Amino acid sequence: MIAGVIYPQTELPTDAGTVRTYARTVEELGYRHIEIYDHVLGADPAVHTGWQGPYDVDTTFHEPLVFYGFLAAITRLELVTGIVIAPQRQTALLAKQAAEVDILSGGRFRLGIGAGWNRVEYEAMGQDFATRGKRQEEQIALLRRLWTERSVTFDGTFDRIVGAGLAPLPIQRPIPIWIGGTSPPAYRRIGRLADGWFPRVEPGPPLDEALTVIATAAATAGRDPATIGMDGRIKQGDGGTDDLLRDAERWRDAGATHVSVDTMGAGLAGLDAHLDALARASEALRLT
Predict the structure, then answer these.
(1) DSSP string computed for 170-219
(2) pTM of the predicted protein model
(3) pLDDT one-digit tens code per residue, 211-230
(4) If DSSP codes are grouped into helix, strand and coil, which group holds residue 160?
């Protein structure tokens, strides 16, 4: 089981020095990948009365693909989007940006995508919130063609391309696509189409139920469910590592191929506190 980190972008300063120090330190600590997630815009609760989203207009988010263009030059970590909200983005542009990150990183890129939950953001980006699941499914097929074919002609419900292609193509052909989601339709999509997935439920009955849906959909599509990766999330705060080790074992027993250590929401103040927590987690997990 490969261990990485969740970049705590909502809790760190946004300057390049912080990003550089964080990435280089976690690589030295033995972590193998870094994961970041995506919001282009945050909603203003003063305008959107009764806003209940976990993030708002004041929550800091780096743009994942630009962020990884920077990190590709300074670290050997695998770069993972966990997730980019693909249906609110132009598919061809997403394919181009992902290919560029893959090239600059030497093929160390994993594109995680999801349908998202923020209707305000969808409206601002000119995309239809109601059809996001169907659009994401179509996008997966088109992304893979754009990453593997010199010239693509595609006439779908949401995208149309006539005799056009990317140059240069990525190193990985195609780039691995992982999916995030917490609903039966998302689980079925993962089973049919994904190279891996990001569970948002804990090991136990909810995860077992999700794995059953994924496995059934995979088998129906003629795929081996064992080939679908799984990247679990474990928490590490300012205290001990007993819970972290317990949760890592639970993910290993559940069949996870990857696990990502998350230090957000633990009341850690600043870069040094996050890195200290990750150092303790690395020692407990025996990464070095």
Answers:
(1) PSSSSPPEEEE--SHHHHHHHHHH-SEEE--S-TTHHHHHHHHHHHHHHH
(2) 0.95
(3) 999 999 999 999 999 999 99
(4) strand
